[in-house]
Predict the 3D structure of the following.
Amino acid sequence: MLQALSRIGWRRTLQACAALAVVLGLLLWWLLPLGEPAPSGTLTFSTGVRSGVYQRYGERLKGDLATDLPQVSIRLQTSEGSQQNITRVATGKADFTIATTDALATYLRSGKPGADRLRGCVRLYDDYIQLVVPRDSKVRKVSDLIGKRVGVGQPGSGVRLVADRLMTAAGLDPANDVTPVPDGIDTMPKQLENGLLDAFFWSGGLPTSAVQELSDRFAIRLVPLEAPLIKELQAVGGSARYYRSAVMPADAYRNAQQGQAVPTVAVANVLVTTDRTDPAMTEAFTRTVIDSRDRIGREVHAAQLVDLRTAIYTDPLLLHEGAKRYYRSVKP
């Protein structure tokens, strides 16, 4: 009898232990994360000049990244533009950036340090090339810039690259036929307003706030970049193939355009990182860029143009493995 009771007690003890193990297992399953740990650490995001679209977009994206990646500290770093951005990421001085496809292709062809490690995450929005002059200027086409003081962008900017190419396509020597002023969008509008520049080039999303604000206080005009000039530009080949004909809609800068659409050149922007970046981090970063489009787009219009259907086309860069993961996860 005592042995039978002992066996029953032992059996009940085992059953209780088993039940307790199940409960503990369920509790651990609930409390502990599964799969890869959440991204953590510090990231540097290289943007652009303070009044440009890259910087304004980066400031707003940083807020969404802070919400989506609470264990990641994100540092924004201003820059001269695309060319400097690419160099920083390729050489490990920044983790993510935005750059134009023509500047990326130029860097890849140069064989500079880290070129083979560059990867794309998202095709973002297009930059539009804007040649700005006072409204009463006699400059009607790029070749009319001969002898003029022309803002061409800082040496590390994307605008410097395309400005030199456009002037060359128009038959000008960028170094000798104009007086090139190597300033950025943060200073060129004021210099034009004060008569220190006769014209300036800018490459950016529409509208760029610095150009918009200039048009609100000073009479300016946008010089058309017509199809024959663009054909000359594209005939160079190589990275110039990333330029295409486009039109700035009449309401991009109402005061400057006075109801007229303006033909120009467009070039795509890409979110860039390297193959060194952790796939989980890149997947999460890419997700935030896509998910934040509408919210950021209410303040930075160019962000509205990010399109999931075209985001994977990051040519000339290969798509990062983490970005591939994201696109697979949202594929219908």
Observations:
- The first strand starts at residue 41 and ends at 46.
